[in-house]
Amino acid sequence: MPGLVRRPLVIWLLAALAVPVLLTAVLVPARAGTTEDDLRDRTLAALQARGIESRSVDFDGRDARVALPPGVDPGKVREIVAGVDGVRSVQIVNGLSGAATGGTPTASASTAPTESTPPITPSTVPVEQSDVPPFEVGRTNQAIRVQAPVRSQAVKDAIAAEVDQVRGEDREYDDRTTIDPANGIADASAVSALLRALAIGTGDASVRYDGDTITLSGQVPDQATKATVGRAAAKAVPGAVVADQLKLPTPPKAAVSEPCRTFPSRLAEFSRQYKINFLSGTSIVNDASKPSVIRAAALLKSCTTARVELAGHTDDLGSSATSLPLSERRAAAVKTQLVKLGVSADRLLANGYGESFPIASNSTGTGRIANRRVEIRPR
Predict the structure, then answer these.
(1) Mean pLDDT of the region 224-232
(2) Fewer CB atoms near the end CB (10 Å): N or C, the chain?
(3) What is the pLDDT of the chain when averaged over all its residues?
(4) What are the CA-CA distances from residue 371 to residues 150, 300, 308, 358 (Å)?
(5) Pairing label, strands 172-175, 178-179
(6) How distant, in Å, are the alpha carbons of 44, 257, 265 from that of 302?
(7) Spacing of C-alpha 86 from chain mean position
(8) What is the CB neighbour count within 10 angstroms for residue 173?
(9) Cβ atoms of residues 183 and 133 within 8 Å
(10) 172-175/143-147 β-pairing
(11) CA 44 to CA 293: how far, in whole Å?
């Protein structure tokens, strides 16, 4: 009888232990599912709060798998999702194909990275080029043009609103956008950046993406605008080849006044008619040549951009050792006189050539007077 009493007691003890185990087996999956739904809801809310509409957010336990919208920085998405309380790791996948662009889990805000699982940075998770369909954004003096497939009417409207802000009163909107829910552009931000960059300036300019290469063509007003368009294009399609064919305006040639246009011929005529000669052995202009210096000053002042050389010469009566410095003093003396008469000194270059270049025979007095001279030459 004592044995019969103990046996039911053992059975009741085993039953008491089995009940919690069965309840755990039944309830734990339900709680896990509830946790995943809660994490998904809070993750979507966090992304939407930052202006990001993801097509898909899935959870396996506390591990997130997020479809990356085209044109959105993967690093930004990863940071937002990892900051959701309870998320353990984040995997970014291609928004169109579903292929993972980075399968290694990254540490969440509550999990420290280890040497075996380093955090993935935006530079190691590029957006696939195929995420962005071919498109074109362009401007003329008459219109702003957008030709692209877009994901929804909301994206189409956002692009139209951006065009209205940048086109100005003299341009119309040439709307060539079409709605393609499967393959269209999902975010207007990339197109908006290109519109803002291209709106600067006049004439024809465009950014065209053919699926492989972004081609920039047309004219922009300055180097800063050229750089802005290039950065916006590269950001619109990360990883694509950018062919920059944008041209800057050709600087206008400075208008040449009539006196400056005719200055070379008038200087040649002056040199034929008027001479600047010197007393023998000195740097003193002779009396007959003083009016020539005054005429030279008037000629030079008629074209203030002309620059000339004052070339000093001597006859052969002195030695070569004394002729060269004497010729230099003669050139300097004429320069001093011209400056006094109102010609800017930086337009005048004075050089001496000694007796090396006679224009007449040194065997006669008349020839020697002709050789003691300063010539005015264009430079």
Answers:
(1) 88
(2) N
(3) 82
(4) 85, 23, 20, 5
(5) unpaired
(6) 77, 10, 13
(7) 42
(8) 15
(9) yes
(10) parallel
(11) 89
